[in-house]
Amino acid sequence: MTFNFDQGIDRRHSDSLKWNKYGDDVLPLWVADTDFRSPDCIIDALTARVQHGVFGYGTTPHDFIAIACQRMQQRYGWQVQPEWLVVLPGVVSGLNLAVRAFTDAQQSTIAPTPIYPPFRLAAKLAGRPQRNAQMRLEQGRWLMDLDALAPQLDGSEKLLMLCHPHNPCGTVWRRDELEAQLAFARRHNLIVCSDEIHSDLILEPDLKHIPFASLSEDAEQRSITLLSPSKTFNIAGLGASLAIIPNAELRERFNQTRKGIVPEVDILALVAACAAWRDGQPWLDAQLDYLRGNRDWLVNAVNQLPGLQMQSPEATYLGWINARKLSVASPALFFEKHGLGFSPGRDFGDDAFIRINFGCTRATLEDALQRMQRALATLA
Ligand SMILES: Cc1ncc(COP(=O)(O)O)c(C=O)c1O
C-alpha cells in the first residue's frame, strides 16, 4: 500500500490551531500536530459512526480496552490488565490530574528542563513547588542527570515527571537510563508519571521504545503511564487518551481527583482511536519513513546555516534548534518577522532555542528553509 505524505492539504482558514495563529504571511511550524491526512481506516470508521446519526452519551468500547492491552503486549511484551486503564480526553489533563492526585501543596514535582510547557504549568496551576532537572548535551544526545539534582532535594519531592520520548529534545531513553530514573525514584520514594505520547514516533530504526512501567514490578507499582494515538495518527483534535495505573490505590486517587471535573471521552474520539490502533500500522510505518527523511534533510540543512545548530532527534517530529549564536533578543520573534512561526524556546525553559515541527510536507520544509536563509541574510 502506498501513502502520499507529499500531498499538500490547505489548512489555512480551517479550524486548525496551528494554521490560525498567524496571518497568511507566516508559515506555522509550531504546535505538535502534523499536516498529514489521517489514515483511511480512521476516516472510514468515523464516517460510518457519523452515518449512524445518534450521538448520545457513550461508554468506552470494550474493543478500545482490548486493543490497548494487546498493543502493550505485542509491542513491548508488557502485560497490562484491563482494569489498570483510565480513559481520558487528553494527555495534558492526565499530567494535571497526576500532580493534583499525587502531591499536596507542600510536595514538589520534579521534571526535566527544557520540557513541553504543560509539565511545568501543571505544577504551577496546582500551586506545587517544582524542581528542574537540567537536560545536557552529551555526545550528541540530550540527557538528564537526576543525581545532580540531589543537593537541591529536601525530602518534599513526591512526583517525578518523565517525557519519554522527550519533547522538545527528541531523546529516546535507553533501558539503563530508565533503570537509573527508577533507582532515583526508589531512593527518593517518588511516584513516576511517564508521558509516552510520542512513543510510536521513534525515528531511529535501531531503537525501541521501552515503557517505563515495563521495567519491573516496582516500576509498575509506582507509575502512571500516559498514552494516546493522537500524535501518531494526527487526531489530536479528537483527544482519546489513556492513563495506565497498575497500583489500585494510585488509580483510586487519580479517579477521585478526576470526578466531576474531567469529562468522559468523546465517542468519535474513541472510534478513531480504535481504528488507529487496530488498522493503522501500515500507514504509521510509511509515515515514519517520511518523517525520518524530513528529519535527516532538516538537520543537515539547519546545521549549514550560520548561527544555528541542532541535534538529530531520535524520536518525534520536533526539532530543538540552538539559536544562541544569533545576536537577537528573541529568536522566535526574529523568525516570525521573517515569516516563520516556530515555538519559542522560552516556553520550554530556554530562551536561546526555537522548536520546529517537521511533521509537514517536504515542500513546506523547503519553503521554511528558504525563509530561514533569507532571515539570516539580514543579520549578515
Ligand atoms: C509530551 C506531550 N504530552 C502531551 C501532549 C498533548 O496531549 P493532549 O493533546 O492529549 O492533551 C503533547 C503535545 O504536544 C506532548 O508533546
From TrEMBL:
InterPro entries, sorted: Aminotransferase_I/II_large, C-S_lyase_PatB-like, Class-II_PLP-Dep_Aminotrans, PyrdxlP-dep_Trfase, PyrdxlP-dep_Trfase_major, PyrdxlP-dep_Trfase_small
Domain of life: Bacteria
Keywords assigned by UniProt, alphabetized: Aminotransferase, Lyase, Pyridoxal phosphate, Transferase
CDD domains referenced in this protein's UniProt entry, alphabetically: AAT_like
Cofactor(s) in the UniProt record: pyridoxal 5'-phosphate
Pfam families in the cross-refs: Aminotran_1_2
Signal peptide span: none
Annotated EC: 4.4.1.13
Keyword Cytoplasm: no
The keyword Thylakoid is assigned to this record: no
Domain Aminotransferase class I/classII large: 32-371
Single Gene Ontology MF annotation: cysteine-S-conjugate beta-lyase activity
PANTHER family xrefs: PROTEIN MALY (PTHR43525:SF1)
NCBIfam families cross-referenced by the UniProt entry: C_S_lyase_PatB
Family (UniProt): Belongs to the class-II pyridoxal-phosphate-dependent aminotransferase family. MalY/PatB cystathionine beta-lyase subfamily.
Record-given protein name: cysteine-S-conjugate beta-lyase
Organism: Duffyella gerundensis
